[in-house]
Design goal:
21% of the residues lie in helices and 19% in strands. With 191 residues, it is of the alpha/beta class. The N terminus is likely disordered.
Length: 191
Amino acid sequence: MTSSILTNIKSRKESNDKIYTPKKVAEIMIKICDIKENEIVLDPSKGGGVFYDNLPKHCIKDYCEIEENKDFLKYNKQCDLIIGNPPYSIWNKWIDKTLELNPKRFCYIWGMYNLTNHRLGRIIEKGYGIKKLIFIKIDWWFSLSYIVLFEKGYKSKEIINYSKRIMCENCGKRCKRGRSGHCFNKCSEIM
């Protein structure tokens, strides 16, 4: 069932890049970031302003918004924190830009299928650790989401990025086990 849902999402005529974050979720994200006085905080995709408008008054705010010709991918100012809900169709470019800007912290909401071991590995390689992780279910969104606060130099507690694929222990390869109607508990190659 999940693979048909993902196929439908990938084949949409319009991307799911304009899904605004509920105010309550933005407030949770802002709170866990513990924004200090005079920190420079960037909302990289302002949209309706749910992050930007709710940032504390004691910080220095900036924003990007593609519809206002302020493209995050062209942003080049220093910032202490980046917080927002990235457009899901360009996650890799978004992560690259975030890491290029080298903020002290960044906090994004990730769809369940967007926080991959490859993306997480790239972030960890650049010296960031997961300081806070919140599982959240927004009723009208596709799936479970994760609010993740990354901090430069923070040593995550027991986060292991095991990227090697686990193959079938019977045939040693990627057989049809668990796919295309085959049993999850039996090798499809061994009859």
